[in-house]
Fold:
Amino acid sequence: MDKERFLGQASFAKGLEDVIVCESKIGYVDGAKGWLVYRGYEIADLVKCSTFEETAYLTIFGKLPRGAELEEFTSKLSSYRSLPEPVHRIIRELPQDGNAMASLRTAFSALGSYDNTGDRFDHSAWTEIGIKQVAQMGTAVGAIARHRKGLSPLVPDSSLCYTANLLYMISGRKPDDRMTKVMDAAMILHIDHEMNASTFASMAVASSLADMYSAITAGLASLKGPLHGGANETVLRMLLEIGVADRADAYLDDMFARKKKISGFGHRVYKTYDPRAVILKKFADEVSATNGTRHLYEIAQKVEERVVKQYGGKGIFPNVDFFSGIIYYSYGIDPGLFTPLFAASRVVGWVARILEYLKDNRLFRPRALYTGDLVASYTPLSERV
Amino acid sequence: MDKERFLGQASFAKGLEDVIVCESKIGYVDGAKGWLVYRGYEIADLVKCSTFEETAYLTIFGKLPRGAELEEFTSKLSSYRSLPEPVHRIIRELPQDGNAMASLRTAFSALGSYDNTGDRFDHSAWTEIGIKQVAQMGTAVGAIARHRKGLSPLVPDSSLCYTANLLYMISGRKPDDRMTKVMDAAMILHIDHEMNASTFASMAVASSLADMYSAITAGLASLKGPLHGGANETVLRMLLEIGVADRADAYLDDMFARKKKISGFGHRVYKTYDPRAVILKKFADEVSATNGTRHLYEIAQKVEERVVKQYGGKGIFPNVDFFSGIIYYSYGIDPGLFTPLFAASRVVGWVARILEYLKDNRLFRPRALYTGDLVASYTPLSERV
Structure:
């Protein structure tokens, strides 16, 4: 069959690999150099010098905030933290032992029913909703984390920064300064990553001008997948399964023999070390040293060494998901919450990129190359064989 | 700034216009000829000879079902109709006067928490879930319709076909044969439309292997938008606002003068009459003649004539959303439920295209063209001006 007959084009990039879908000034990934910037700032600098709030402001508004701007933004993030009571009741209706990302998707979708200011498109109203959504994501993750243990949600603590409050709402314990700093760094590193699958899905939904809740719900729906945000949990479960560093070789021999993909390695864009993995590895080293999880870090080192030796030549290196789980697990966070933690950060990137795209919106409506029958003749039910 | 510096490509198609994202054998739109086929069958033939169930089977499985196949499929669609009780409770938590598509999005997302068989990808399990989702969509729309009136949901009637049961669950009245036939035709016409925005969004989400509920939730999220499924409701509200045919000219003069888009006209792919509009117009003519809604049909005719005269030369003609609302409204259906009705049909296309794409999945992960700063130097908070 002549494929070109229908659309005058026979070749296309599967999964839109390397296909440009928009312009952006938000963030840039150089996959060959292993380089990631938000608004021109290298992530290493942001991790060293900025907080999650500052970096979120930078990502959404395009510049580092001045003192008064940061204060206003932080105060908004804090004041928007509460969820409507019916949304808490909806969370409680969901199964305690269910997938936390499925719960988060439902909670966020439900939030949209309590804020119809966004049912008509208005850029400044949608910007305000976006800030609110960042604040609410932390609270929703906290409420779901508590529900998983059969506990009532905690009231957000407005004296705590976004990351510390998030950790408090999950565990009921206020983190010390070092834990706040390390987790804040991890949160900064997950804010944005160019046209990743969940960001793209959320932009695709936003482009029908549905509303910000619809768009963020789609981002959560995508992030749940094991080929995307779900990978950080899978990595940790793999490390737990291996159990001790001595068993890593046997585990990998088997995986290599069965040509199985090792979670936490490889990336569509990076063909070298993911710069986020480089930073997270240092934190994983530090945190695992004092939290009884040294064995997991040692297994990870072993796995990294073997996989890079085997596949590094093909551009397969650890990605952001490989070391983050060790940090979270060392701090006592339930692996089922790793992807929700990712969401509590990435929501900033979703919001920023949706708002940027909507400044000059065009509905995402591509084509498919039709390769089926063109003229089938109808057979009545009784004559079908 | 040299745009080509980063990605070696400076031009791209906004909104992915005419960009091919996959191959498909499911359906084909010829926008120049005004031609739509599902699996090679012209929609006019399917409307004339097939039911919604037969067409859904055809769309998902690629061939018209034999008697036993249709019986099994219909029986599954019927047996899967009920929703878990907590999902009914969640629907009741949502505001009665809220956006029905927002409610449907939440209800569907919640359904995912009660069926974790799809948390791991398995093509045949996901196919079964897809059939279940088609069945459940009708019930969810029905439950939401009843909740909007403060009523309890009805128990699905297994003696009724998909369309008749859907109408029964919405209104509490069993439709007569002619109403069933007309509405079934409308449902058939909405099943699939190639790489439309909601189908693409649902495929994008499915490609991370999240799960079928995540993917369908994203489809609903996208369909809600006024640039997509939301348009059928907007058209009807415009006709009601115009009120009588004599006022159509003044209304349009004003819209043309303000260069406002008229809902229900124009399509990314069709540059001539949308073949679905041609069929729906005939039904709208028939149904409005006996239901006290003739004035709406007359207004629509007037609007069509003026808009086509003004913009037909630019390829602007009535699309699927222009006449469907008159039919639904004539049958007493609340305009707030028009887009959910669309969803109760389009879910078939979402399921079919997701399942087809997942046979050879590749994560949708495109690129953005970075046009921002490349090397910003960090200024501490106290020094920012």
